[in-house]
Amino acid sequence: MVKRMFFAVMFVAMAMVVMAGVSGAADVKAAAGNEFLIADFNTGEKPNNIGGDFGAWSKDPTDFTQGCSESFDTVNRRGTTGFAMKLDYSVDSKNPAYNGFWMFLQNFDASSYDNLALWVKGDGKIGYTTVFKVELKNASKQVGRYYVTNITDAWQDIVIPLKDFKGITDFSNLSELVIVFEDRIASNKKGVIYIDDIRFTKNK
User: What is the pLDDT of residues 5-43, one digit of tens each?
Assistant: First the structure.
């Protein structure tokens, strides 16, 4: 009888640990500090630094004149180790075209932060667009939008104030970040963009 009670207690305890792990993965709380790293891609594999999946997407996967693919890149990485994320896109289609890159944010609470920051550069040999859209989505299905401009072929730390994302007011449960290449605004219809060190930051 005592053995049965012991194993029953152990089973309940283990179940509670598993549930706590699942809950933590789905609701990431920001730690103290001036910035919180979401993704540095340095492992060369999924998921991101907070357990979220990511990948490329396309408006019309059956239209082979448009699309986006993602890959880990060591040659054009920022710094001397690890990887950057390479986004090879095309919106050069006779049909309406847009595509890009998505990343789950695991209901991240960014309410104590001021900015979304990411390092960005274009590929000087292949070509690139100097403008693209960044979206932030929350669990309430609000979508905030911001257009990044003046991209060059040198690494730039793009710091976007959260208040400048039009369409979203609650940053306490962010579900997804999306980068969008659009045919109507892309300065180059085909090209490569590199991104690295996606994070939320506080103003100093």
Answer: 444 444 444 444 334 333 344 566 666 679 999 999 999
Q: What is the DSSP string of 107-130?
A: EE--TT--EEEEEEEEBTTTB--S
Per the structure block, which two tokens stand in for 89?
């896109």
Peptide bond into 47 cis (omega under 30): yes
Q: Please state which CATH number belongs to domain 31-201.
A: 2.60.120.430
Number of helical H runs and strand E runs in the chain = 1, 11
This prediction has a pTM of 0.84
Interacting residues of 80 by C-beta distance below 8 A, sequence separation 6+: none
DSSP 18: H
**What Rg value do the Cα atoms of the chain yield, rounded?**
20
Please write the tens of the pLDDT for every residue from 73-119: 999 999 889 999 999 999 999 999 999 999 999 999 999 999 999 99
